[in-house]
Amino acid sequence: MSDWIDVGAVDDVPVLGSRVVQAPGGDIAVFKAADGTFFALRDRCPHKGGPLSQGIVHGHSVTCPLHNWVISLKSGEAQGADQGCAHKIPLRINGARILLAASALMAKAA
Amino acid sequence: MPKKLVVIGNGMAAGRALEELFEHAPDAYEVTIFGAEPRVNYNRIMLSPVLSGEKAYEDILIHDDAWYEANGVTLHRGKQVVQIDRDAKCVRAADGTAADYDQLLIATGSLPFIIPIPGVSLPGVVTYRDLDDVNAMLAAAQKGGRAVVIGGGLLGLEAAAGLKAQGMDVTVLHLMPTLMERQLDPSAGYLLQRAMEERGIAVRCKANTHAILGETHVTGVKLDDGTELPADIVVMAVGIRPNAVLAKEAGLETNRGVLVGDDMRTSDPDVFAVGECVEHRGTCYGLVAPLYEMAKVVAAQLADDVTAAYTGSVTATKLKVTGIDLFSAGDFSEANDRQDIVLRDVARGIYKRIVLKDNRIVGTVLYGETADGSWFFDLLRKESDVSELRDTLIFGQSYVGGVPLDPMAAVAALPDDAEICGCNGVCKGKIVQTITDKGLSTLADVRAHTKASASCGTCTGLVEQVMALTLGDKFSRAATEPMCGCTDLGHDEVRRLIHAAGLKSIPAVMQELGWKTSCGCAKCRPALNYYLLCDWPEEYEDDGRSRYINERVHANIQKDGTYSVVPRMWGGLTNPRELRAIADVAEKYGIPTVKVTGGQRIDLLGVRKEDLPAVWADLNDAGMVSGHAYAKGLRTVKTCVGRDWCRFGTQDSTGLGVKIEKFMWGSWTPAKVKMGVSGCPRNCAEATCKDVGVICVDSGFEIHFAGAAGLHIKGTQLLCKVAGEDECIEVIAALTQLYREQGHYLERMYKWADRVGVDAIRMIVVDDREKRRALFERFEISQKKAQIDPWAERVAGHDAHEFNPMANFTLAEAAE
Fold first, then answer.
1. Nearest CA in chain A to B802
2. Is B427 annotated as a binding residue?
3. Which residue in B115, B357, B611, B695 has the most C-beta neighbors within 10 A?
4. How do residues B174-202 score in pLDDT, each as one tens digit?
5. Is the pTM higher than 0.80?
6. What domains appear along chain A, each with residue ranges and CATH number?
7. What range(s) does the FAD/NAD(P)-binding domain occupy (chain B) (predicted)?
């Protein structure tokens, strides 16, 4: 297996939106910010496990749909007074394709 | 005995030169002015606000009659000088009026450039130079119709914006590929064009005018490519040329303009020239700042200070169109020895560019945010070495030193001439002085006296900071809570400005109202999306990315990431077919929980997201639509069985509930709206703790509102009593519409009523039949696009990406 796995096209993800990649270790959320930057996080809010892929994306952050925690897309860290970190998945863009690190994508649930 | 000074021209340059002279040497000269215009000296650069209606002629006067009298000036108004006799030292006007001089000052200004094409002399073709031109444009604008402005420079664009503000359809024709190409680089020119187009002004670049059409009056403009544009008025604003005719005829040395040395004297030592008619070191100027610098030197020379010298000016340009912030100064053409620093914020339409040469600023272009314009310009004029500041230079003065200062310190550091209000050209010093002189303490007073922040309002925060600096502890900021961290504006202000400025998209709101973030946040985006949807129901395209998840996927997210689905049951009524469909769906998709809700309908809990469209398809097939149980919108209309079955029922409460729900479903509101209709005062439908509740009585219907039974328990208040069902529905729809238009996003109806007052609401919805009707009609219009079942749309494939994962690797694991 190569180090990176193609999970979709850059156009599959709406701007300011997110798509889910279902993986053995749980869903992964792939985000696209307004400036076209991509990020990937495990689709679980560090607070109560809310699906971050369903939140509102703004700047390089996403607000969790369950209790409005704001999570940095870059680091996965909760912003402001909240503490916790969503697991970050290494991501690369190759031309028009989105690639995720194979090791993280295929990892079993911890 | 004083010497005789004759001035030809009564414009801003001449006026300023005389002001300076009277200050230096009040009694040295006996002054005679010849002015071609039949009026006193006025501020020509403020003609644009006069055209747009933001100012009147009286507001832009510089010298009134008393000033001429007080300084002993003889003003010959409306008299054009036709001859300078340098041998006899005498000037003569067209009507024969003559005056002798010891010293002469030529200030004949400039003439508008007229392109030599057929039709330019037709009535309806005007230039943009003086008050007569403005009056001609205002007269034309009163009749409405179409205007074509030839020239996309400073004057042309200001004329276009003014005519648009006066209600005309305006097209700007510009020969070059981008607007204001002499002051702006192409990027800023593009942003400017977009901004003009956004306010409804058509812009055609690379448009070469071939002829002006018309027999007795202008009817249109024909372009080189054959296009014909109809026009009721054509404004020629392609540029100016120095008016040096008189000087040339008098034998003075002229080129493009009247040639002057650094002492502002022409080739005749007794004759000075000043202003736009002048050519100094090969340059002619058309902006006010250099004219004022020249005027200073002329005055000093006339007062016998022979050392005074004018050495040329670096100019800066600002566009005076309300809501468009643009600043440019110096030279920004590209060259090998120059370096660029560029900052772009695409979402907010901000563009800043600084051109450096040998560590000094030689040019700058600012678009969208011009607060640092005067600072950059200062560095440019002083030729300051900026190598120390370079890393943060582009971020402006407040970032000097690399650390963002607190905003108050940044405002405190601004010089007095720093412009605070771009719309009204109010600088910091003016605000401070007015506050002190007039003892002002409120924002409203400061607005009234200085006009600062009175136009577009985006500088309100700055004005408040200036007030806080000036007043210290005496200043208490207006208690407006900002919508969120992205803006200083409160919900009311944002709603007002969306409406007043005709803002029709989220990026337009963020750009025009100066949002501090690139694309808002999870608080403001849903609010703006709702406000725009409410204000422009027929035009605005809902932005799913600015919806909370429940409204984006039309189901309620649960703690485990599954969803709940609630189909509508009109007035709480259902039937065997619907119940059978619900039962089938629950079994087919393995839905774990089926529950009866408090709103008289059935909730299917634990639906997987990817199953949602299929679940909806089956429910749709049984005739059911979305119950909007997830919406900031109309939820349920709870009813009792009423007259049909109940021995106490006075009216058909079930039927009325169904009618209300069928009329009002689908409408978006600031927060959820729950209704109830009870058939008698025993109130089995619990109508008196709803947002809107109806209590049926023998003689009609009592309409109650502003109740709640959630986080807060609140009984309703009686709004009014009506006799018939139709009137009942009209009042409820009007009430809901008023709430839709005034409510802050997420503000429940009872909180809105507390804020604006029940009496105020009753006055509009009950007492004023016309306003009630208008509200009702606006609600009806809005419902046209709202009453489309969102489930059916998604069954048909809308937003399919929301419901499917992009990829699935869980099976790959199984195959391994």
1. A19
2. no
3. B695
4. 988 888 887 777 777 888 888 899 889 99
5. no
6. 14-89 (2.102.10.10)
7. 4-278
